[in-house]
Amino acid sequence: MSIGIIMDENPISRCYINILKLNNVILKDIILLKEKSFLPNFISLRIHFKKNNYWPLLFLKQKNFLFLAHQIEDYFNFPRNFCREMYKFENINDVCNQIITTNSQDINSENSINIIKKSEHDFFFNTGKQILKSIMELNKKFIHIHPGYLPEIKGADGSLWHINKHNNIGISSFFMSKKIDEGLVIAKEKFEMPKFSLKNYNELNVKTLYRLWFSLFDPLLRGWHFKKFIKEKSLFIEDSTLKNSKGNQYGQYFSFMNKAQLKETFDKVFL
Description:
Layout: E1 3-7, H1 11-22, E2 30-35, H2 41-52, H3 54-59, H4 63-75, H5 82-86, H6 91-95, E3 99-103, H7 110-118, E4 123-126, E5 141-146, E6 153-155, H8 158-166, E7 168-175, E8 185-192, H9 206-231, H10 239-244, E9 252-254, H11 259-269
Parallel strand pairs: 1-2, 1-4, 2-3, 4-5, 6-9
Antiparallel strand pairs: 5-7, 7-8
């Protein structure tokens, strides 16, 4: 069975790449969703990396936020300084033999479809948040790791809604369909609600806290689940898994939180 990665340059993909690196996994290739550039590839890739990971790169230069990163690493049992290591540009070169760029940011574009269609991989981990449309017509399966316990929590801000509604954290992997967060569930689990110390918490605005959450906590939550796929290959989409997978058409969809909902949720998490 051949498994690949369709990569949006973002904290999620950077977390997965660092997990591959720590487990000495080298892929034949990684398909990178990226617009065409007239710059040399080694320059345009680095610019793309810095632009899409601007906030985590900035946060990890600050002692207060680095201390938060260490707490999140401990919560998910990742090695110390995992967060700093995962935002190293060159990591991608250590885990694949080739980076295939699509010359389009759109996963449903003609360029992306043609590249994925020709790929020898049967299954792909998708690290982006786009809705799959035309690409679903291909004879391929796409796996997404969702920060919510499906089908209880669907849609946006899943990890935050879990805390807000259930005082816990959930994570699920599933085969993607044309509908948001539906499809066959592969595996799912729940965690106790985390508590983190954050100096000057009351002085930070909601927008900064939100960016922090999706720079540090959200990718490591997904990474915890991804790590199980790497270490426990029995989870990897065997026929028995397909037969035992359950539909995911029920549950509740949530949209992005407003400021008041974010403040209420962050008050539960940060000391």
